[in-house]
Amino acid sequence: MRTMKTSTELRAVVDAFAARHAARRVAAGADKRPLLDAFRRMQHAAAAEDSVAMAVADRHLHVAIVVLAGVDGLVETWQAAAAPMERFRVDSLARCWPDLNVLFEAHRSIVDAILAGDAVSAEDAARAHLDAVWYRLADTGGDTTLADDPLARAVTYLDFHMQQPVQLAFLAEHVARTSAGHLGRLFRLKYRVSFTEYVRALRMHKAVGLLTTTSQPIARIARIVGYADASRFGAHFRRRYGLTPRGYRQRFGNASRTDRDG
Known about the structure:
This protein has 262 residues and is mostly helical. Helices cover 75% and strands 0% of the residues. The protein contains 15 helices and no strands. The longest helix is centred in the N-terminal third of the chain and has 26 residues, at 2-27.
């Protein structure tokens, strides 16, 4: 498992670099059709519930990003970084992602950011994706580097999966391995807030970072931090910060970026 963690960390560095440069090239007018084709191929594999095809499509998508980056020697570097993970990826795909649509959707934020030409968001999304992959592999493989403490396991999981709907009962049973009531009490004892309030604060903190450092559309930021409904995201954000997401970006965001929200 230590080898897997080291390999995943290396992949995260290379993939984040590739995503950043791919987004820059798209912004400069590079052909994005190969990336779209690779993403559709992954979607078809997920819909067919075909783990073997999904493994091939997953690799094809990441290679498409690396090629799109257009950096000399990067394909060879990525292949070297990816090679140690091949055994983990092929052996554990069905075990870690019984619903392949979850794995497909986990790539959407990377692809969306690249297609939008947003280099910062693309880099962040690629790194976050590999962090989440490591957690899934470690959790299903019994990695002892994951904390035994129920609250620590829950918090780590939330850091990597905030874009997904998470219920306290699921988190308690499948991640923290304790009762929902006990886990809820642990959140209150440690953080002085309920589980729901903790998750909302985590998502709002991530949203602030995206609003102030990227030009991602607000609806996309809402999805990245776990809101299917952008208006609900806006209401929660305004309740917490006293400003709409757009107003917050205008006041505190990087003035050199173009606000594409209209």
